[in-house]
Amino acid sequence: APIAAKAQDAVEWRMQALWDAGTTPFEFEKKFVERVSELTDGNFKITLFSAGQLVPANQAFDAVRAGAFQLMKTFDGYEAGKIPAFAFTSTIPFGFPESDQYEAWFYEKGGLDLAREAYAKAGLFYIAPTVYGEEPIHSTVKIETIADMAGKKGRFVGLASAVMADQGVSVTPLPTAEVYTALEKGLIDFADRGDLTANYEAGLGEVAKFIILPGVHQPTTATSYVANQGAYDALPDDYKAALAVAAREISGSLRQHIMVQNVDVLKKYGEQGVEITQLDPADVAANRSKAVESWKKATKEDDLANRVLASQIEFMTALGLI
Amino acid sequence: MLSFMKSVSSIVTGVNRLFFLLAAALIFAVVPILLFEVVARYLFDAPTVWAMEASTLIFGPHFMLAGPYLLHLKGHVAVDIFSEKLTGLPKVALDVFSYAVIAVFAGVFAWVSWPLAINAYSLGETSFSAWNPPVWWLKFVVPLSFALLFLQALVEACNATRPAQDQTGASA
Amino acid sequence: MSSEFVLAIMFASLVGLLLTGLPLAFTLGALALVFTITLWGPAALSVTVLNLYSTMTSESLLAIPLYVMMASILQRSGVIESLYRAMELWSRRLPGGLAVGTIAICTIIAAMTGIVGAAVAAMGMLALPSMLKRKYSPELAIGTICAGGTLGILIPPSVITIVYAVTAQASIGQMFIAGVVPGLLLASLYIGYIVLRSALNPSIAPRPDNDAPTTWEERIASLKSLILPLLIIVGVLGTIYMGIATPTEAAAVGVFLAFLSSLIERRFGWELISGVALDVVKVTAMILWITIGARAFVAIFTGTGGADFLLSFIQDLDANRWIVLAIMLGILFFLGMFLDEMGIILLCVPVFLPVIDFLEFDRLWFGILFLVSAQMAYISPPFGYTLFYMKGVLPAGIGMGTVYRAIVPFILLQAIGIFICALFPELVLWLPQSMIN
Ligand code: NA
Ligand code: NA
């Protein structure tokens, strides 16, 4: 077993973020790194790289496993094709409508342990999630109910593509880079892409005159801080605590920042002439029950995935969501 | 011994030529697949979940598996400003050096990519798209291509030391 | 290890190894291995391989084999040769007429794809044999194609523009529109240069031997050869701009139409198909193996902070805003000499944009200057990727030295283009602003 370093020992790690440099969430990764340094008297230094700088964001998992860098911010869903449980620890289409509920599942309902179990298999240590709200749906046609989406061409990825297909959407898997042009040219009717601010900056308001909220395909999102197990084990306890504390702080502060930012950006969309459609919560709830069947298919009968889903369904039922 | 070397070298080159031709044929499949997608989506409002993904799954093996034989064809582009002026021993030495570098590069890439492929296989990796096909096999294309390149580089290094008329002609 | 040292040693070893005649793909890949092991240790080697999987499944790079296929079919079925014959008939009074026509075709292809490898390889196969056959100087022909082939970066659609826009948080649509006028400006600069050079020195672009004036019947008859290429252009551009297909899918439509053309020309058959298959696999594998090496090299260069001191130099620079701008563009050009465009964008945009904001320059306008610089990087020796793609489709006997000589005037034209765009921002901003209002 590696000998734990002494608290005053200098440790240098490399971390690749999930976000492009300059974006809001990337600024919060900078804060994370600064906070960890601050909590360890400047002894734990993490060099931050933006998405794709070292490896493509969806390949970071294997890079951290191999020890190419020690820490990543990732989206568990990238690896759901390997470990089915990750389908539910990143975002659940038609799942928890409130970020607090999803975060509570992690911290209060054993979600953290389940996520750690999933990552442990790969020699990785799951530190903590950053939980925040929805990603919107941008549409070129007016959609007022979930039933309106049926038969229309929508761009979704990951579990959302399967769930939305089961809701009757003609799912068209396009790369993120194609979304703007595909909406503009009418190749597709509606699409998911990023959060409200990122999509505003990419100009989606210019080409899609309707926004549908809540983004039922991704009502809440959890991205994860994940470390190489060996590197993590070698840390002194107070460095480990610093990671956990900073992670939990960032989760709350990014979420609140997005909440404030959304108010401003929705106003800007309004100035562009974009119309915001709010789906009826009863409509969403009714289709959530339908989505449960799609979720179950995604477990691929994997034991851990089944346990994760069962735990989430139990909590959703207790909350009266199902 | 020499004839043994020669037959090993022609087996390696022959196998790589087969992969090259297979790779060349593969890419034609992309055209009807993408046309089908365009027609299905535009005329019938029924986009497929598989067409674009299937095309990209063909794309990787297409260029990866063609790489080793392309070395034999001298199709990997180089700066020839100085090397084209060399003859005799210096040229042989430089050629052997180049192929040795390529062999090391290919060997290390094959070695690094192998456990990633094994891991993808043992987890039965799928793409997790709406179509969700198995994709672990794609990760084996990488070490396979690099291993074949490794062998081809060794063969070319040997060929470079032999007089020109002894070498098999470079033709596809 | 200090950033200056990393930069110097990586640059020097890249140049040194390349000059031994080791192919570019393996030069980049082998250096990525050596630097990863020495700077980060063997555990980090997976970085070099992991970049490969997303190259293997890239939807936008899939355009490369498709455009090469289209070009190869058209070349082998004689469609392009008749097109150049028609251009010859119609442009006999215009010095360097065929090179001018080539730039026009490049501009059209630029509106179909933003993947430079696809455009350059396709144009190399299409235009080069026809120009060389008519005794155009290899330098003029090669320079024309390399420069023209990069126009796709500025003229939409363009993947690099999208990457820039996303990294800079600019509207993709506005960036696209802003690229149109500068793209056409560059095309005009190329044309002006070609005409001038050819008028001054007719031996580099000889006029047709036959001095007998062609009759109008002959000329009109030659227009028939435009029908098939036009059909393909309309087919590809139409499917993209009417929202029928993505650019990659539209390339497949183009291949289908090219096959139809070969049927009409009665050239369709096993000979054509096998020839096309070999063209496609050779060119695609050549380009993509370079991409593999480049992605690995850029990752380790970025990771070890090779450009850090250049970037922090800009951040701390306290000088006249135009000087700062000029230095920024100079850094882009320098890094572009050995990094790929994605690497440059990921490295520089986040550092440069706050400086641009501080100096109160327009972000959209800077974006275009940035993209023209990236375009310049694509054709700048020693590593301009375009030059290697071009070399890959050259006939035997033309070496890299010719390609390097060929490109120099066009790099200067690019520099003039940047200068004009910098001096007259309205050239860049007028179109996007008038589209909004
Ligand atoms: Na373009
Ligand atoms: Na360059």
Automatic annotation (TrEMBL), chain B:
In the record, biological process GO terms are:
C4-dicarboxylate transport
Recorded superkingdom? Bacteria
Topology in membrane: Multi-pass membrane protein
InterPro entries referenced in this protein's UniProt entry, alphabetically = DctQ, TRAP_DctQ
Q: Which UniProt keywords apply?
A: Cell inner membrane, Cell membrane, Membrane, Transmembrane, Transmembrane helix, Transport
- Ranges for the Tripartite ATP-independent periplasmic transporters DctQ component domain? 33-160
Gene Ontology CC: one annotated term: plasma membrane
Q: Which Pfam families does this one have?
A: DctQ
Q: Where are the transmembrane segments?
A: 20-44, 50-71, 92-114, 134-155
Tell me where in or outside the cell this protein is found: Cell inner membrane
Q: Which Gene Ontology terms cover its molecular function? A: transmembrane transporter activity
Function field: Part of the tripartite ATP-independent periplasmic (TRAP) transport system.
Question: What family does the database annotate?
Answer: Belongs to the TRAP transporter small permease family.
**Assembly and interaction partners:** The complex comprises the extracytoplasmic solute receptor protein and the two transmembrane proteins.
- Descriptive protein name: TRAP transporter small permease protein
Which organism is the protein's source? Roseibium aggregatum
TrEMBL record, chain C:
Q: Does the keyword Membrane apply?
A: yes
Q: What is its main location?
A: membrane
Q: Which UniProt keywords apply?
A: Cell inner membrane, Cell membrane, Membrane, Transmembrane, Transmembrane helix, Transport
- Gene Ontology molecular function: transmembrane transporter activity
Q: Where does it localize? A: Cell inner membrane
Which residues does the UniProt record annotate as the domain TRAP C4-dicarboxylate transport system permease DctM subunit?
A: 11-427
Give the way it sits in the membrane: Multi-pass membrane protein
Q: Please give the GO cellular component terms listed in this UniProt entry.
A: plasma membrane
Its signal peptide is none
One Pfam family assigned to this protein is DctM
Q: Where are the transmembrane segments?
A: 5-26, 32-53, 60-78, 98-128, 140-166, 172-196, 226-244, 250-268, 280-302, 322-352, 364-387, 407-431
User: What is stated as this protein's family in its record?
Assistant: Belongs to the TRAP transporter large permease family.
**Xref: PANTHER family:** SIALIC ACID TRAP TRANSPORTER PERMEASE PROTEIN SIAT-RELATED, SLL1103 PROTEIN
Give a short account of what the protein does.
Part of the tripartite ATP-independent periplasmic (TRAP) transport system.
Q: How does it assemble?
A: The complex comprises the extracytoplasmic solute receptor protein and the two transmembrane proteins.
Query: What is the protein's given name?
Result: TRAP transporter large permease protein
Q: Which gene encodes it?
A: siaT_24
